[in-house]
Amino acid sequence: MAVGLAISREGSHYNGRMTSFVVLSCMMAAMGGVIFGYDIGISGGVTSMEPFLKKFFPEVYRKMKEDTEISNYCKFDSQLLTSFTSSLYVAGLVASFFASSITKAFGRKPSILLGGAAFLAGAALGGAASNVFMLIFGRVLLGVGVGFANQSVPLYLSEMAPPRYRGAVNNGFQFSVGIGALSANLINYGTEKIKGGWGWRISLAMAAVPASILTLGALFLPETPNSLIQRANNHERAKLVLQRVRGTTDVQAELDDLIKASSISRTVENPFKNIIRRKYRPQLVMAIAIPFFQQVTGINVIAFYAPILFRTIGLGESASLLSSIVTGVVGTTSTFISMLVVDKLGRRALFIFGGIQMFVSQVMVGGFMAAELGDHGGMDKGYACLVLILICVYVAGFGWSWGPLGWLVPSEIFPLEIRSAGQSIVVAVSFLFTFIVAQTFLSMLCHFKSGIFFFFGVWVVIMTAFVYFLLPETKNMPIEKMDIVWREHWFWKRIVGEAVDDSKMETA
C-alpha cells in the first residue's frame, strides 16, 4: 500500500511575507503558551518541596521521610496530591466549551483577554493559600484561564500566519509552553533554597508575570481577518488588517477565500452538531485522536512529576529540581528546532521520527529501572545519570514531534464554519486525558513500577502507526483550502468523496 502522498497545492501561494507586525502579535498571543507551560512546570516542582508537602500534604511528607517499609514507587501516591495537579484540567475542560462560544461570537482577542485575567486571579490565590482548599480553588481559576487561552491562541496563530510559515508560527505556541515550563523549573530551583520554607509561595505567585503580559498585551492585539469577516462581515476592515499583516496591498486572492469560507460558515447554525456530519469526519477523528495520543505519550510523567520521578530513583530534592531544568532546556531547544524545520520537512516526518525516538528511549528507561531500582534504597548514580540522559532523549523526541504538532495540526485543519467548535473539542479532549493521566499516574507508578514506561511505549507505537496511515501532509496548504488534503488521501477520500457526491446530489 502506498501511503505517501503527492498532493497538488492549488492556491497554496498567496501574496505576502512574514511581517514584524505578525511576529509581534504572535509573540504577545503566545504568552498564553507561557502561562500554560509555567503552570505545568511549577506544579511538579512545588509538590517535591518538603515545606509545601508538610503544610498541605502531611501524609505524603510522612511517607517520604519516615516510612521505611513503603516502596520507592509508592511514596507519593496520594489522590489529594494529584488533585492539586489535575484540578486545573477539569476546570480547563469545562471552560473550553464556554470559550468556543465567546471565540466565535466576540473574536479570538476577547478569549485571550479573559484567559489572562482568570490566570491572574488564580496565581494570586495560589501564592496566598493558607489551606488546601484555597490552593485547589486557585488551580481551578488557573484552569479557566488555560482553557480560554488554549482554545483561542492556537487559532489566532494559525489565522494570522502566512500559509508557508504557519507551522513555524504555530509551533511557537509549544515553544512558549517550553519556555514557561523551563522558567518554572529555574524558579523552583531557586525558591527551594529560601530559608523559612516559604519559597513555594513565590513559585506559585510568579505565574502572575506572564499572565499580566498576556492580559495587557491582549488589549493591543489586532483581531484576525478571519474573525472580522465571520463576526461582522466587515470586508473593508478585514482587508486593511490583511494588508497590514501580509505587508502588501495585493491580498485579494486570500481575502476572497476568507469571504467564501465565511459565507459557508454562516449557513451553519450549530457547529457542534455540524461537525459530526460525514464530510467533516476526518477533522473530527483528528480532533479526538491527536490530543488523546499527545497525552498518552507519557510526557506528563515528565512534565508534572519529573522532580518526584527523579527523587524516586534516588536523587535529592535540589538535584531533582536541577534535573528538571536539564529536561526543560532539552525540550525547549528541540521545539525551537521543530519551528525551523516543520515547514520544510513536513508534519508527518516529524511525527514518525519523534515517535520512534520516544519509543526506544522509553523502553530503555523502563529496562534500566526494572533492572537497577528495587522497592527500597536508591539507584546507582551512574545508572541514575543514564536514566536522566535517556529521559532527555525522550523529551527531545516529544519536543520536535507530538509536543508542537499536537497543537499545530488540529488548529489548521478545520473549515471556518466548524473551527471554534473543532478547537474546543481538541482542547477538551486534551484536558480530559491530561486530567486522567495526572490523577492516576502516581497510583499507576505505585502499581506498575518500571512497567509504566512500557505502558506508554505501546501507545507511542500505536500513535506512530496512526500518523503513518491516516494523517495526510498539511504543510504549505492554505488554511481555507485544507479540504484538498482529505479529498486526495488514500483512505479519507472514500469518506469525504462520497460525502461531497451526496451533497451535490441533494443540491441537484
Automatic annotation (TrEMBL):
Q: Which residues cross the membrane?
A: 21-42, 80-99, 111-130, 199-221, 284-308, 320-342, 349-371, 383-403, 424-445, 451-471
What GO MF annotations does this protein's record show? monosaccharide transmembrane transporter activity; symporter activity
Check the record and name the Pfam families matching this protein: Sugar_tr
Provide the leader sequence positions: none
The entry's keywords:
Membrane, Sugar transport, Symport, Transmembrane, Transmembrane helix, Transport
Q: So which domain of life are we looking at?
A: Eukaryota
* Entry keyword NADP: no
> What range(s) does the Major facilitator superfamily (MFS) profile domain occupy?
25-475
A cellular component term, taken from the record's GO annotations: membrane
Q: Per its UniProt record, what Gene3D superfamilies does this chain match?
A: MFS general substrate transporter like domains (1.20.1250.20)
* Location in or out of the cell: Membrane
Q: How does it sit in the membrane?
A: Multi-pass membrane protein
> Which family is this protein grouped under?
Belongs to the major facilitator superfamily. Sugar transporter (TC 2.A.1.1) family.
Task: Note the PANTHER family from the entry.
Answer: SOLUTE CARRIER FAMILY 2, FACILITATED GLUCOSE TRANSPORTER, SUGAR TRANSPORT PROTEIN 3
**Name of this protein:** Major facilitator superfamily (MFS) profile domain-containing protein
Q: Which organism is it from?
A: Manihot esculenta
